[in-house]
Amino acid sequence: MKLFFKTILLFALILSSCRVSLVPDYNANIYQQIISAASRNDRIYIDLLQANPDDRKFSLYAKRYASLETAIQSIYLQYQARPHANSFLPIIENIQTLFVKFKNEHQSQSAPLSADQVRLYQQYARDYWKPLLIAENALK
Fold first, then answer.
1. Whether the model pTM is above 0.70
2. How is residue 86 annotated by DSSP?
3. Helix axes 62-81, 28-50, angle to 10 degrees
4. pLDDT of residue 18
5. Taking a C-beta distance cutoff of 8 angstroms, is the pair 44, 68 a contact?
6. R_g (Cα) of the chain, nearest Å
7. In this structure, how many other beta carbons lie within 10 angstroms of the beta carbon of residue 120?
8. Domains identified in the chain and CATH numbers
9. pLDDT digits (tens, 9 = 90+) for 45-57
10. Residue 125 in contact with residue 41, Cβ under 8 Å?
């Protein structure tokens, strides 16, 4: 009888110590980078909305766009290097694609962006960042 209980206890210990992970572990550093980049993205559009329409030229925001694009690329590379993070890649690729599209539209537009355009860009950007934040936070 003692042997039976010892065998059951050993088997239970072995099973409880095994772990199969099909998703990446939560990473507080990446989560903070996502929050920071999403906030900086939102800040560009808030500043554009507050600016005089004549001060909405791309050249006045080019460095901020470049800095934010670098941050997005950095987050993407970290996800590429993370084990089991393939399901996150389409989310960050969508963010990259949208960001570059809006940046290029702003750059190529001869007239200043309208407030409605900026609000639309801002809302879409928020909507694209949200799934990545939710997905990373769900790993906690």
1. yes
2. G
3. 160
4. 61
5. yes
6. 22
7. 14
8. 24-138 (1.20.120)
9. 999 999 999 999 9
10. yes
Instruction: Give residue 9's pLDDT.
Output: 63
- Residues comprising the chain, all counted: 140
CB 113 within 8 A of CB 106: yes
pLDDT of 39: 98
**Which of residues 39 and 11 earns the better pLDDT score?**
39
Q: Quote the pLDDT of residue 3.
A: 73
How many whole angstroms separate alpha carbon 95 and alpha carbon 132?
9
Res. 19: pLDDT tops 70: no
DSSP secondary structure of 53-80: GGG--GGGTHHHHHHHHHHHHHHHHHHH
In a 10 Å sphere around its CB, with 0-12 CB exposed, 13-18 middle and 19+ buried, how is residue 42 labelled? middle
CB 133 within 8 A of CB 92: no
As a whole number, mean pLDDT of residues 87-110 equals 97
Q: Which two tokens stand for residue 19?
A: 């772990």
Give the Cβ contact number of residue 105 at 10 Å.
13
Residue 73 has φ and ψ, to the nearest 5°, of -60, -40
